Amino acid sequence: MKLLDVDLESEFRSSSLDKTLDGFERLKKDLQRFGADFLNGDASQFRKLAEQLKDNPQIFSGFGALNKRVKKA
Hints:
mainly alpha; 40% helix
């Protein structure tokens, strides 16, 4: 969700993992809402974002990552 720049809108948060299946239900909703290209499309948006992450692997590292975002596809 961070890669898509929707982590703040996301229902699923890695810090909110619990021992029930609720986390998976939230992840499913997020994938359906934000991951259509990845799930049903040709994944071109996902590949473009993955390439940007490959070029800048520090994009999600430390506090500096809070202000850095991958360019929207």
